[in-house]
């Protein structure tokens, strides 16, 4: 009897102490669950592809392929949180891409007679693209917020309008090749940071994690709030830093393809050592852009009035109005942000493809919405995180590239992606019902 | 006219009332939801606003809170004519409202709700969450010392806790005029008692309170004067001490002042 009792009570007590330890880390359980799900997906694909999935080459590609959808998902999360939807982003991507393509290929070189591949071209192109995205988003947002037209309708109209406009601009032509500097924004071995700069970025990230943890502690101390145990902060810092180190090591251990490396060697007069010239690729520029945008959007969502209002509107629109929140302007701003982010995605996509076509971004809105939803954004409003959305984008892309890697029929790939979407949301709402 | 005579002024007849709403009318597409209604409120006084469903109580009060400005009529505060066309205007005059529907953003925490629309910012223009949490802890400590759930979305709080968050908002921003629209409608008995205590507490601090309710017992316990509305019109305002519950009931249902009600009508009503 006695022995049985201790045997039974011990696991229970251990469970409780484990749970309270995890609780004092104050991490987002939903996010942690998604990281775990992502790890499982990666491991499964790695086994099925006989070790091809978890290679530096595949992971580097995965990071680049996820970046455009991840960028747009950060905006879509805020749109959905405030109980709206934006179906137009694929077409806005296509239209802004076409304008940027024509600008660098025809309007600046021929129209203004300045010639191709000027050092300043890419800056003008990007600025015009972002401004155009903001204006399109602002226009649609205006109809939603001030015109009282449901966002589903406005952006469904936008989906048709901007796609048509993209075709009309160049009569369906493909605009290529693009400006040589602009191309770097799409990644590729040359559009990456290389070994040293990647470590510098990693170092900055680790310092930022440390500073963030210390500043948070100081702030709570100043107001006399209960503090997280110091070991919990230490563990978070160490885990965060380790993840950064691992990520940078992985992208740095992906070398330039031999053909490119040889060309580079000849160009710079380097003798190729036996066994080939190894040039580490490092973090791709679009990935850096996506990370930067995720950080800025998280800051907007959690540290700024704008974000607070977006979430309050999602939680209870009437309460927000009664509290004196300018809900219309807030909603309009979410659409402006979405337009800018669609233009950023257009930059990444065209630069990566080295071409602008009127069909660019067809159907991408559904990928982005799926990524946001898999990342825990709720259609009933008020719930969702930027980090979750970015993870959702990586999950979607992992499924897509993993299935390509193991040779799944493209038709089946879509079916699996759809099933995963439903399963993820179903699981999420089941969890929510159990633990409100 | 008789309504005015009945509302005997309690204290300091020379000082202007805290709030006067004069000849307020609000229509929705030709329907007079509020028709030429005049009510007033003094500091440290609770005025109960009663009437059946659709009597126009909430509409009248939404004109004061800025949620839906009046079409006609004037609002005077401290003897000054003011214009209230948004919730923001109302707050400028120290008017805070606690709504029937518990107007809280469910998905954010108590501090975010308390400061919604009036956030404390850092010098760099970001949200100062620590300062807001600290102020929330301070005011909740006064109102509801048992309250400890500062980090959870208000969705997971009980009705009483949610109501105390709403009341904390009024207290923190030093409301002078408090509008409570059915403050106990969503609450259990113990929580109702808690809100009643709070009302007495606030009243003692000199805050003027408009209490909207269809529960006549609530109103009799808390109010000093009672204004009765029927079909958008003011039936009259009476001193609580000078009327019975049945007489107020007669005002609510048949729209007649106590002295106008015949004995047969009263008998029918009580039966």
Alpha-carbon Rg of chain B, integer: 19 Å
> How far is the N terminus from the C terminus of chain B?
30 Å
Low-confidence stretches of chain B: 1-11
> Level of helix content of chain A?
over 70%
Walk me through what this model shows.
The complex is a heterodimer of chains A (about 425) and B (about 270). Chain A is mostly helical and about 425 residues long. Helices cover about 75% and strands about 0% of the residues of chain A. Chain A is built from 17 helices and no strands. Chain A has helices at about 1-25, 30-50, 55-80, 90-110, 120-145, 150-170, 180-185, 195-220, 230-250, 260-265, 285-305, 305-315, 315-320, 325-355, 365-375, 385-405, 410-435. In chain A, helix 3 runs parallel beside helix 11, helix 5 packs antiparallel against helix 6 (about 150-170) and helix 15 (about 365-375) crosses helix 16. Chain A starts with a helix and ends with a helix. By secondary structure, chain B is an alpha/beta fold. Chain B is about 35% helix and about 25% strand. A 6-stranded mixed β-sheet of chain B has the order 6-7-8-3-9-10, sandwiched between helices. Chain B has a 4-stranded antiparallel β-sheet with strand order 2-1-4-5, with helices on one face. Chain B is globular.
Summarize the structure.
The complex is a heterodimer of chains A (436) and B (271). Chain A is mainly alpha-helical.
């Amino acid at each position: 009897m006695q022995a049985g009792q201790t045997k039974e009570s011990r696991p229970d007590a251990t469970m409780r102490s484990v749970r309270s330890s995890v609780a004092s880390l104050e991490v987002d359980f939903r996010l942690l669950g998604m990281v775990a799900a992502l790890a499982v997906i990666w491991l499964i694909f790695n086994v099925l592809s006989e070790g091809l999935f978890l290679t530096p080459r595949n992971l580097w590609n995965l990071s680049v392929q996820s970046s455009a959808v991840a960028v747009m998902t950060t905006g879509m999360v805020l749109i959905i949180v405030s109980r709206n939807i934006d179906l137009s982003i694929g077409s806005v991507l296509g239209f802004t891409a076409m304008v940027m393509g024509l600008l660098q290929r025809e309007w600046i070189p021929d129209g203004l007679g300045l010639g191709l591949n000027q050092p300043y071209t890419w800056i003008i192109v990007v600025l015009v693209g972002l401004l155009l995205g903001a204006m399109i988003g602002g226009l649609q947002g205006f109809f939603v917020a001030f015109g009282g037209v449901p966002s589903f309708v406005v952006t469904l109209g936008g989906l048709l309008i901007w796609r048509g406009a993209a075709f009309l601009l160049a009569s369906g032509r493909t605009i290529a090749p693009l400006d040589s500097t602009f191309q770097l924004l799409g990644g590729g071995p040359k559009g990456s940071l290389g070994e040293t700069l990647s470590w510098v970025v990693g170092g900055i990230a680790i310092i930022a994690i440390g500073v963030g943890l210390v500043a948070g502690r100081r702030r709570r101390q100043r107001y006399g709030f209960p503090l997280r145990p110091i070991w919990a902060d230490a563990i978070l810092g160490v885990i965060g830093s380790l993840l950064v180190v691992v990520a940078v090591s992985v992208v740095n251990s992906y070398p330039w393809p031999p053909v490119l490396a040889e060309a580079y060697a000849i160009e710079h007069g380097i003798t190729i050592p036996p066994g080939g010239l190894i040039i580490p690729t490092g973090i791709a520029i679009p990935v850096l852009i996506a990370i930067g945008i995720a950080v800025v959007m998280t800051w907007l969502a959690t540290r700024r009035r704008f974000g607070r209002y977006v979430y309050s509107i999602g939680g209870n629109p009437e309460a927000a109005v009664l509290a004196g929140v300018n809900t219309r302007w807030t909603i309009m701003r979410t659409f402006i942000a979405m337009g800018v982010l669609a233009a950023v995605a257009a930059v990444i996509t065209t630069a990566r493809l080295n071409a602008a076509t009127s069909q660019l971004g067809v159907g991408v809105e559904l990928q982005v919405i799926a990524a946001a939803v898999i990342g825990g954004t709720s259609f009933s409003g008020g719930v969702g995180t930027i980090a979750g959305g970015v993870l959702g984008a990586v999950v979607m892309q992992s499924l897509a590239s993993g299935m390509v890697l193991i040779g799944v029929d493209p038709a089946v790939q879509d079916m699996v992606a759809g099933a995963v979407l439903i399963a993820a949301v179903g699981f999420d709402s089941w969890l929510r019902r159990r633990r409100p | 006219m008789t309504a005015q005579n009945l509302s005997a002024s309690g204290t300091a007849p020379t000082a202007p009332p805290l709030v006067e709403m004069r000849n307020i009318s609000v229509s929705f597409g030709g329907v007079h939801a509020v028709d030429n209604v005049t009510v007033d409120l003094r500091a440290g006084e609770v005025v109960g606003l009663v009437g059946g469903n659709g009597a126009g109580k909430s509409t009248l009060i939404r004109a004061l809170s800025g949620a839906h400005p009046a079409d006609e009529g004037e609002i005077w505060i401290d003897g000054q004519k003011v214009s209230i066309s948004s919730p923001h205007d109302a707050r400028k005059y120290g008017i805070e409202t606690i709504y029937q529907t518990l107007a809280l953003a469910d998905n954010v925490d108590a501090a975010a709700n308390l400061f919604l629309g009036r956030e404390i910012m850092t010098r760099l223009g970001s949200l100062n969450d620590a300062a807001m949490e600290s102020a929330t802890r301070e005011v909740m400590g006064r109102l509801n010392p048992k309250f400890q759930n500062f980090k959870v979305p208000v969705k997971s709080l009980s009705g009483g806790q949610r109501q105390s968050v709403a009341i904390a908002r009024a207290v923190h921003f030093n409301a002078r005029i408090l509008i409570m629209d059915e403050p106990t409608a969503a609450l259990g008995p113990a929580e109702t008692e808690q809100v009643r205590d709070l009302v007495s507490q606030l009243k003692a601090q000199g805050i003027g309170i408009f209490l909207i309710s269809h529960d006549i017992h609530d109103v009799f316990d808390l109010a000093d004067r009672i204004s009765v509305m029927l079909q958008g019109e003011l039936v009259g305002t009476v001193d609580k001490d000078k009327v019975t519950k049945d007489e107020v009931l007669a005002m609510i249902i048949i729209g007649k002042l106590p002295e106008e009600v015949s004995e047969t009508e009263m008998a029918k009503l009580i039966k």
